[in-house]
Specification:
Helices cover 12% and strands 45% of the residues. The N and C termini lie far apart (55 Å). The radius of gyration is 18 Å and the shape is globular. It has one helix and eight strands, in the order αββββββββ. Strands 1-2-3-4-5-6-7-8 form an eight-stranded antiparallel barrel. It has 138 residues and is mainly beta. Keywords: Signal. This is Lipoprotein. It comes from Ideonella aquatica.
């Protein structure tokens, strides 16, 4: 496909604008809320060094849970490997879990569970808004 010079200039201008505004490459790095009717039932934190932490309390279990490990993103496929967990975390240590990222923006991301096909939406929050059950308030 051949673009005209004005079209190429417009495209280049758009790309430069996106790069300058920091909008060109949204990232999973940060803290994400797994929403429910009363707020967040769980939080996921992805660090730029490839580490993740998850915490929360499931509706069907009064005990808080925690998990930690490593994560990678290859194209649309995000995978994490669990290294440490509480006994009630949904995956045991050593288990790998992968999803397909359906949409990724500055304020939310949606992913598809590869086993069930269900799509889930998470919302970015400030790390100070993360409230892991059992932790003292910040």
């Amino acid at each position: 496909m051949l673009l005209s010079r004005p079209a190429l200039c417009a495209l280049a201008s758009l790309l430069v604008g996106l790069l300058m505004s920091g909008c060109a490459t949204p990232s999973l790095v940060g803290t994400w809320c797994n929403p429910d009717a009363s707020g967040c039932w769980a939080w996921d934190r992805f660090s730029s060094d490839g580490r993740f932490e998850a915490c929360g309390r499931a509706l069907d279990d009064p005990q808080p849970f925690r998990g930690a490990g490593t994560w990678t993103l290859q194209g649309q496929r995000m995978c994490y490997v669990v290294e440490q967990t509480t006994p009630n975390f949904w995956l045991p240590p050593g288990q790998r879990y992968c999803t397909d990222i359906v949409a990724l923006g500055r304020h939310e991301h949606r992913y598809r569970d590869l086993d069930t096909g269900a799509v889930f939406t998470l919302h970015r929050v400030a790390d100070t808004d993360r409230h892991c059950p059992g932790e003292p308030p910040r």
